[in-house]
């Protein structure tokens, strides 16, 4: 193993007091122990800070930072990236969960396959944590143009080796929506290779009032990604939005989890 084998986990937090403990516990329980969890508070108005600081006192791998003003997930994640000290970068939103071997299996995968940028399969859970028995499987590989029409990569499963990827490529554009997809596109556009890791290692929580739960908002967010961030032509944007709509509908026809 390399001298620096630490995983830096970046978690933006905003009013997550009801779920943040479960999320943090899923990191503490990882079989892989060389990690730091950087929780960046986007000026929460609930007691998220109090909960996080209690964990910070108990485990020196947990670090709390609060932004000066509410700035959005992109700014929060970029601050976490700036504060990170690990070889590997992983993202975990404040309401999602990792399974026990997630980090261990991803570290092994990138080293055994000389991979740069990976995402594992993940399953959907309800807001109360109950399983929907539905999984999203990653493609073995994906290109920039393919990702434009199929924004399947999810932050909960992303894992990046900074010995192979320039850290500057992980700096997210300062937009309120779609900054994660824009970052994956940014990496692919600059020659970074993607590998899909076909193991279910994480759970993505479907929160009813989340940005992604509203289909119209998702459509607007994706259109802005094409036109406002990627600066695609109107014709290419229309072509991509049809591809996006098709893949979004396919993704909702989830494979039943049969313990495969």
UniProtKB/TrEMBL annotation:
Q: What residue stretches are annotated with the Glycosyltransferase 2-like domain?
A: 8-155
Q: Which domain of life is it from?
A: Bacteria
Q: Which residues form the signal peptide?
A: none
* Coiled-coil regions listed: none
For this protein, the record's Pfam families field holds: Glycos_transf_2
InterPro entries per record = Glyco_trans_2-like, Nucleotide-diphossugar_trans
Checking PANTHER family in the record gives: GLYCOSYLTRANSFERASE, UDP-GLCNAC:BETAGAL BETA-1,3-N-ACETYLGLUCOSAMINYLTRANSFERASE-LIKE PROTEIN 1
What is the protein name given in its UniProt record?
Glycosyltransferase
